Amino acid sequence: MVRLVYPDAKRRRKSSYMIKKFAAAFVVLFVFGYFALKYYVSYSVAKGVDNVIESLAGVATIRYGSVSSTMAGRLTIDDLTVIPQGLNDPITIDGVGIKLPNFFELMKLKDMTARSLATDGFPETFEVFINDARLNPDADYYAESMNPPIGVDIPVREDDPIGHCLLQYGFTPAVMAELGYDTVVLSMSYGFRQLADSFMLNFNYDLQDMVRMNIDMELQGRSKSIMQSANYRPMLVGATVEGNDLSLGSAMTRRCEDLGVTREDAWKAWLESTIAGLVAVGFVPDERLTEQLTTMATSQHGNFRVIADPSTPLDFNRMQYYKPEDMPALFGVELESW
Asked: Is the pLDDT of residue 12 over 70?
């Protein structure tokens, strides 16, 4: 039997073969280019990290495992170990990095300077993050940082059970042991997102299995004009602060009971000190906000959300001209707890 092959069929077969070869070559080039770019970015960042580590030699000894990146624009320095100068115990961190809109924005990182930011502004979105920094309360760096306790500038009174109950004297190693925590695992991030005529800032703090805090703040302006102006005045459009108790509240309750402080005495003392602190910074809670604070203080779960929704953007530089008792209405503050 004789099989006839027509010229058109030959051309179609040859064309199909060439398309397949082209597609295979394109895939090979794409994969090669992707890994070449990833290597280039990782190599450039690692070189920069090595320079930074060298410049910090008098402050701390820093080691890291590797640098990784993704096409989604995430760059991470993995497996860091930090030993502060003069101390012996290490702080270990799973990863420190940045998240940009895409991989090509990562490639611009090495050329980013204060001048380029002033010209082009920030990327439309970015996030800087630390994943799982492990802090041991028994470590020498922790004891050093807590002596005196961070943010505490008052002498510790042993005859103040309510003060100890509310952790007014700080998270000392002894207090952490009494609360039942042998390791503190901290993750945190800072994010930026440009909107049409304003921008969003996001701060996220997570103490693993202890407490979580998220802050969203919207301010007027565009990053380019802000970087170009030395007289930028921050104007608050709105803000939300949300806190979630994962175990710290129940641990504090048990410790307060061990100190002989009842739950009612504890929340009354917390409410009194919170209102006093707000008044001290020029913010006098009105009756409605005081009721919301009381509901929050007596909540069994320790989750809360503070919402600021001013009717017009607020100029932080003019806060001193407002009456303290007008602040709740001015900020449009609402407090939710559950």
From this structure: no
Q: Is the peptide bond before 7 cis (omega within 30 degrees of 0)?
A: no
Specify whether the CB–CB gap between 278 and 320 falls below 8 A: no
Helix 287-297, helix 263-280: angle, nearest 10: 140
| Residue 8, Cβ density class (10 Å: 0-12 exposed, 13-18 middle, ≥19 buried) | exposed
d(CA 215, CA 206): 12
Give the per-residue pLDDT at 58: 82
31 pLDDT above the threshold of 50 = no
CA 318 centroid distance within chain? 28
Please report how many Cα atoms fall inside a 13 Å half-sphere around the Cα of residue 155, on the Cβ side.
Answer: 3
pLDDT digits (tens, 9 = 90+) for 304-332: 999 999 999 999 888 888 999 999 999 99
